[in-house]
Amino acid sequence: MATGGSTNLEDVPSVELTTELLRRMKCASKPDKRLIVIGPPGSGKGTQSPIIKDEYCLCHLATGDMLRAAVAAKTPLGIKAKETMDKGELVSDDLVVGIIDDAIKRPSCQKGFILDGFPRTVVQAEKLDEMLAKQGSKIDKVLNFAIDDAILEERITGRWIHQPSGRTYHSKFAPPKVSGFDDVTGEPLIQRKDDTAGVLKSRLEAFHQQTEPVIDYYAKKGAVVNLHAEKPPKEVTVELQKALS
């Protein structure tokens, strides 16, 4: 719906209004939740976050997307971020926390949020907690998608894609009929640049060095829930619902 008073509610189809009203009534009874999802690439955060978001009426804050949106919208913080990125520098932690601070004041974040991609370091976690404390709130739960590196390697390096259609295969879990070729067109499959063992190894090293201390930091506050991320997605969803109920 457009903002700035340009949309007259009389012009909004009844079905849309009713759907939104019912959603808000259902959401009103849900407890507020402020969550962080943490896990290495391929651990299933992207599969589970939309499920939790809908179930608890939260907003999903993926910091990479938020930075891009702030830059595109030319918000004061977005302009600052763009200047930094144009110089080839990393956007400061304070700036990212500022963008999160702006975002959680939106109506869609009224019942809370799922933070994804931040904090990646203990310093970032401390800054985030400071900002929330000023608003009289704190992180309720840190959902740690715990999974063995070896399982991840098998999961990720086995992924193959038919680029024109987006059809995905997995050499072990969902192999094509003919190895290396798309079932429908017979065209060759490719592997994404990020899905190779070398790239995964460096991403996992960064994760263990920087982000695992964040899990310890929140564990000391009693906020961490360890999930068995190697299980099938439906079982992980059940675990999550138990942890959050």
TrEMBL record:
Domain of life: Eukaryota
Molecular function via GO: AMP kinase activity; ATP binding
A Pfam family hit: ADK
Family matches, as InterPro entries: Adenyl_kin_sub, Adenylat/UMP-CMP_kin, Adenylat_kinase_CS, Adenylate_kinase_lid-dom, P-loop_NTPase
Catalytic activity line of the entry: AMP + ATP = 2 ADP
Domain Adenylate kinase active site lid: 159-194
Presence of the UniProt keyword Nucleotide-binding in the record: yes
EC numbers on record: 2.7.4.3
Keyword Electron transport annotated: no
Principal EC category: transferase
Annotated keywords: Kinase, Nucleotide-binding, Transferase
PANTHER family per the UniProt record, alphabetical: NUCLEOTIDE KINASE
Protein family: Belongs to the adenylate kinase family.
The protein's role, per its UniProt record: Catalyzes the reversible transfer of the terminal phosphate group between ATP and AMP. Plays an important role in cellular energy homeostasis and in adenine nucleotide metabolism.
Protein name per UniProt: adenylate kinase
Species in which this protein is naturally found: Apostasia shenzhenica
UniProt lineage: Eukaryota, Viridiplantae, Streptophyta, Embryophyta, Tracheophyta
Gene responsible for this protein: ADK-A
